[in-house]
Amino acid sequence: MNEKEGKLVVENGDLSLSKLKEVYNTGFSNSVAQQQRKKVIGERIKDIRKSKGIKQKELCERIGVMITTFSGYENGKHDVPAEIIVRICDLFDISADYILGRTKNPKGLYFSKEDSNIDDLQKRIDEVQRLLDELR
User: Fold this and answer.
1) pTM of the predicted structure, to 2 decimals
2) Where are the alpha helices (DSSP H) in the chain?
3) Which domain holds residue 92?
């Protein structure tokens, strides 16, 4: 996501900040659903943080949140502000859709497995090009 004129815009099929706030704040009218939403978001944040080997304290320093508040996010006790979700997404290069539980793919709803193979494909192309250069 990039920032243009103070608003985040859609990039690679990800949500803009205004759309993120809309999705985050609507559709959860009862307290059971609200608690479930907070639980899913907290679990996703905790899972991604742990998978990257980052301690709570370090992440809190990097995103500008007090550790007690952040602990409440991960434990599903507090709502996570959209701006914090965006910071986490930017830091870990993941989609807000993933954190919000809209997809199981950390890269987002519109990211295909083929896209993840682009780096491998480029390495193969470079290797073939090197071999061709050697043959000349």
Assistant:
1) 0.60
2) 17-25, 31-51, 56-63, 67-74, 82-92, 96-99, 113-116, 118-135
3) 2-111
